[in-house]
């Protein structure tokens, strides 16, 4: 995975359905010169109601080859945030399955998938 200093992560889409959001991210990556047939560093964001659920999901992600960072809940009523990163190829042919995979993982652990972002060279 590339050094974070050489990559810039941006919000590439705002609003719309998850499917529309995913396609807009892919289009924006292409506009920035990304070759979608090649892997890029992709970060996913998930939220869980407890530390135990976040840890269980994090272990599953780590076993699948993701670099996982967990952010402690800001308070008793606030969720635990996980950011997982890995070099992946995400394109129009696999983006629906990509999203479904993370939605299922979050659901299995009582959490929520909150989207993804990809690095653009800058």
Structural write-up:
The two termini are 16 Å apart. By secondary structure, this protein is α+β, with helices and mostly antiparallel strands. Strand 3 (67-71) and strand 4 form a beta hairpin. It has helices at residues 18-31, 51-63, 95-108; strands at residues 7-9, 40-48, 67-71, 80-88, 112-121. Mean pLDDT is 86; it is low at 1-7 and 9-13. The protein has 3 helices and 5 strands, in the order E-H-E-H-E-E-H-E. The radius of gyration is 14 Å and the shape is elongated. It has a single domain (4-121), classed as Alpha-Beta Plaits (2-Layer Sandwich), CATH 3.30.70. The chain has a 5-stranded antiparallel sheet with strand order 1-5-2-4-3.
Quick recap of the structure?
The chain has helices spanning 18-31, 51-63, 95-108; strands spanning 7-9, 40-48, 67-71, 80-88, 112-121. The chain has 122 residues and is α+β, with helices and mostly antiparallel strands. The longest helix is centred in the first third of the chain and has 14 residues, at 18-31.
SS-derived structural category: alpha+beta
Number of strands: 5
Radius of gyration: 14 Å
Q: pLDDT below 50 for ≥5 consecutive residues: which ranges?
A: 1-7, 9-13
Label this structure with key terms.
3 helices, 30% strand, disordered N terminus, 34% helix, alpha+beta, five-stranded antiparallel beta sheet, 122 residues, elongated, Alpha-Beta Plaits
């Amino acid at each position: 995975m590339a050094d974070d200093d050489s990559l810039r992560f941006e919000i590439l889409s705002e609003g719309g359905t998850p499917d529309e959001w995913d396609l807009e991210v892919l289009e924006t990556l292409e506009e920035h010169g990304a070759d979608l047939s090649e892997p890029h560093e992709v970060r996913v964001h998930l939220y869980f109601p407890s530390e135990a659920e976040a840890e269980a999901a994090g272990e599953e992600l780590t076993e699948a080859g993701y670099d996982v960072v967990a952010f402690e809940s800001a308070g008793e009523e606030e969720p635990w945030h996980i950011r997982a990163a890995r070099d992946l190829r995400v394109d129009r042919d696999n983006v629906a399955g990509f999203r479904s995979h993370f939605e299922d993982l979050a659901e299995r652990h009582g959490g929520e998938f909150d989207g993804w972002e990809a690095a653009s060279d800058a």
